[in-house]
Design goal:
single chain; about 100 residues; alpha+beta; 4-stranded mixed beta sheet; two-stranded antiparallel ribbon
């Protein structure tokens, strides 16, 4: 796979073993030189979404969890307006698999 795009999964993985399984699957699926775009709730984002607990990250924290096999090449913060009119802070990271 050349591109991995995650807009709403990683931040729901609240246990280390869930994150480890995600990263293992990412490594199997994304070929070297491929791009992973991962969006998470930002450090000032909500602590719950749809009643479920979430983890909040900076792009650098996601990079640390992905490990040295991935290089962060771009990071963007975004404020998302919800259908109810509220705001949620997201962080996006673009990572290249070495």
């Amino acid at each position: 796979m050349d591109v991995w795009h995650d807009r709403a999964v990683f931040h729901f993985l609240t246990a280390a073993e869930q994150r480890d399984a995600y990263v293992a699957h990412l490594r199997r699926a994304l070929k070297p030189g491929g791009t992973a775009i991962i969006a998470t709730f930002a450090l000032d984002g909500p602590t719950k979404c749809s009643g479920l607990p979430v983890e909040r990250y900076s792009p650098a924290a996601v990079a640390a969890l992905l490990g040295p096999e991935f290089e962060i090449t771009e990071a963007i913060d975004d404020s998302h307006r919800t259908p109810a009119g509220g705001r949620q802070s997201f962080s996006y990271g673009r990572f290249i698999r070495r």
